[in-house]
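Protein data:
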Amino acid sequence: MKKVLLLIIAFLNVFVTLAQDGVVFEAKVSKEKLGINERLLIEFTMNKDGDNFTPPSFEGFRVNSPQQSISQVYQNGKKSLSKTYSYILTPKARGKFTIKQATVEIEGKIFKTLPIKIEVTAAVEKPSDSKTADDIADDNLHLVAEVSKQSPFLNEAVSVVYKLYVSPNINVSDFRQLDNPKYNNFWSQDLPIKRWKIENGTYKGRSYRYVVLKRVVLYPQKTGKLSIEPLSLDVTVDVPTNRRDFFGGRIYTQTHKTVSAGNRTIRVKELPSGKPEGFSGAVGSFDFNVIPSKTDLKATESLQLKVEVNGKGNLKLFELPEINLPSSLEVYEPKFDANVSTNLTGTKGKVADNYTIVPQFRGKYPIPSVSFSYFDPKEEKYKTIKSQEILINVFEGPVGSGVTGAPISSPGFNKKAVVTAGNQFRFLKLNPNLQPVQKKDLFKSNLFYSLLLLPLLIIPIAIVVGKKKKLMEADVAGNRIKKANKLAKKYLSEAKKAIGKKELFYESLERALHNYLKAKLHIETSEFSKEKISDLLLSRKVSGETVTNFISLLESCELARYTPASEVTIQHDYNKAAEVISQIDKQIQ
């Protein structure tokens, strides 16, 4: 009884002191009794801004997600402030615990909260702890990796689409990639996403908005269980609270969540037995052709023979069949040519080996049939396509040994004298139709005096121009600045025209930044992540600050399409882009 009286007296003394100073500093908990499988919310609130806030030690609890929030409300012309420190506590064990005093310094005085007693019981069947910002974010934010096939064949295309699902109950203000998955034991092809598009969909029976963040096509290079590493993001989430502002609007609190798509496992099946002879690993649906550019020609003329595969499948991952040609044909190393594109269903297009063939002797040369074998995963069987036999007719030229349709002679044949046809000089023109030139006295003409005085005028002009050129060439730094500024204006001209239109401006700005790197570094930056672009610029001796500014601009272009942007912000981003391009052009090596 005495302890209770002492606590009441102490509380009254504190209350009187606070009332006198006009300061309120108190601690509130969501509940004083909870199960060990529940969580506890404790808030330390003050009505004036204070310094040196010191929370209690929270003995017996694990601390999760500390947050700080400040709100100002105008009521009857007066401003009032509320500053809150919030903590989510998880019990470590059952029992009775005391949350000790928190302290803060306000206007030079130290203020303390009252201790709070908490009882932790056995686990409850249905935890009823009030949901925190983290809880709400967990329930309404999901990163999902959608895999097109769970049991593909070896070298069969598998697509992975990473989607970020966001419930209408929360807002995502920003996110950044923490970890980019590595596709070990896969041949991978990223499908660039030029702009994010917000779409409506469902996830586990609930309505969500979602954005496709990344798309990749994989061709497994190993059989058995293969793991696809997760994509991880750090997401800034705005979560609504139960509080409202002066105008009745919902007050949001901000929290950071790390979301991951999780490891995905697929089982890759071995190709069936009975592989045809010459099978080189082609999997898909294909057509095969051997196409000569011509079949009738003279000796020492050339023809092109194309061995071509077109269709849909792992076009970049197998070898084309070789052709067997008569030894009397001179054949050069084939030139490989590929015209393929990749989408979510896989790679399609055509690949070809182009042979240059030069016959040396007259005759008929048969090119035998060529076979191409592949595995069709839809029908789950091997297929073989054979080309038609081709006959090359060399109708004019010297005769060699062992050629079809020509007399056989010893390998060392005699060289024949060159016989002229009698019209080898027919391109010479025998009647030139020349006209006589009229005689004029050059020394008495205006042309003579003009040519005489012209050097006297050109020499001083050349001296002046030469001096200016030397001065400009000596100014190395100035020339680089002028060149860099001119380059920036060139690439940003389209973006400058669209400054008044937000979406068009940021599309043009992003295209200008990628085109600049493409022209400067001779790379396709659309196939690169921001991390690879950053590494590439740093390797070319561009300063870290400049690289950071460049990546920041790319991120602004991606986010600005979905968030409001004022004309001031747009103009700032334009000026920043011009400055960054100039800096890179001056620093890059």
In short: Confidence is low (pLDDT under 50) at residues 12-20, 402-427. The longest strand covers residues 61-75. The radius of gyration is 40 Å. Residues 380 and 500 are 57 Å apart (CA to CA).
